[in-house]
């Protein structure tokens, strides 16, 4: 068969400036082989050393991509036309936001592994699922992790060790003593220091071939698209709903896969949201829970090993996405129960009504996520309804009658409580009003003053007037009045 081959401008210089030529062959592969015989310089531009088509070269037979036919085995008929369409890396003077970003495949073609890297990654290279090609993809990949906390710790450690070439980390926090129970990126020595800086040092000590980009800032609607767009895969290691919806929406708008994980006490979830190929976070959870319904890890606690397991699952999904192999968690929600040691997988379907990835999206740009999630600052209590730990101490020292009401949970009471206090956990207050004195003044306290302020408002509305909230809770009491009280 004689077929016509059309060459793109970029390749014509390797074919004596021809734009079209006639070649013989029974399949697309044979026709291209004839072409390369005639112009050997084209070989390295079209094929890998193993003789496969390069990832960034698209070959069309008439108007169909041969990847959707039988690839190089696709038979040809007399008079057919083969068109070679290499992708262009962009940068032709277009505005930056319009520029097409290079793909992992395109970058992987240009990446080499040094002998030291080959040795380092040898256990990957000998796996048929990874090989040199896969390891080059890992090196060419750019992964952004939002949140360098419990999930971000195992995630970044494994991705760096695996040789992911560029790792971005967004976090504005410093290492806190209470982080060390699960955030294995950090040491006791790091307390008080910048998380992203410490993470960068640790990851580069593990693998000096990895470039770590740090963003010491809060991810917001103003900066999210700019930060995310440089990356191939986004990993959500956040701990709050506004940022989770922000990450989801930015990923959908930019067409990036979003590797999701969340943890609470001993339960975890993971999925891969990828609006083009499957559902997004909003398809699964169109609305955030009302504020206060789902406690944070700081309020509800989290088993230290749980983020290790969920974060490692996120790292695993990220590596599969980069390799373009295996079965990612797209369209599936993994539920993990560390207490019963159970894994379950549920189907998640793309919602045609989804406000951002559905058929008629109503969200076309990033919104105010604090407002969307109902996270508005609590109204301040009137000054006469508050008392500082020092003022309380003075009144107790003077022997004034004060009813100390502790509204925390029993396990918190067990850690520490104020002498002479009465424990009535917050959710039992409505049923326990008769236990409260009507003559003595009531001072309500919790850990840091938030829950007790809510209880105070409830009591005020129930008619109580001789009530005060302990500002800063037992935590501030420990700092300002009695350092023997343990902080937690
Ligand atoms: Zn959706």
Architecture overview:
With about 500 residues, the protein is an alpha/beta fold. It folds into three domains: about 1-85, Beta-grasp domain (Ubiquitin-like (UB roll), Roll); about 140-370, Rossmann fold; about 385-480, Rhodanese-like domain (Oxidized Rhodanese, domain 1, 3-Layer(aba) Sandwich). It is about 30% helix and about 20% strand. It has 19 helices and 18 strands. Strands 8-7-6-9-10-11-12-13 form an eight-stranded mixed sheet, sandwiched between helices. A five-stranded mixed sheet has the order 2-1-5-3-4, with helices on one face. β17, α18 (about 450-460) and β18 form a beta-alpha-beta unit. α8 runs parallel beside α9 and α8 (about 150-160) packs parallel to α14. The radius of gyration is 30 Å and the shape is elongated. The structure holds zinc ion (ZN). Zinc ion binds next to α12.
Q: Brief overview, please?
A:
The chain is α/β, with parallel strands linked by helices and 488 residues long. It is built from 19 helices and 18 strands.
Radius of gyration: 30 Å
Give the helix level as a range of percent. Answer: 25-40%
The pLDDT mean sits at 90
By CATH reckoning, the class of the largest domain would read: Alpha Beta
Biggest β-sheet: strands ordered side by side in the sheet: 8-7-6-9-10-11-12-13
Q: Helices and strands: which structural class?
A: alpha/beta
Bound heterogens, unique = zinc ion
CATH fold annotation of the largest domain: Rossmann fold
State the low-pLDDT regions, or none.
Answer: 87-98
CATH superfamily of the largest domain: NAD(P)-binding Rossmann-like Domain
- Compute the number of structural domains: 3
The largest β sheet comes out as:
8 strands, mixed
The proportion of strand residues reads: 15-25%
- The tally of beta strands, per DSSP, is 18
Beginning-to-end CA distance, first to last residue: 79 Å
Number of helices: 19
Q: From the coordinates shown, what is the CATH architecture of the largest domain?
A: 3-Layer(aba) Sandwich
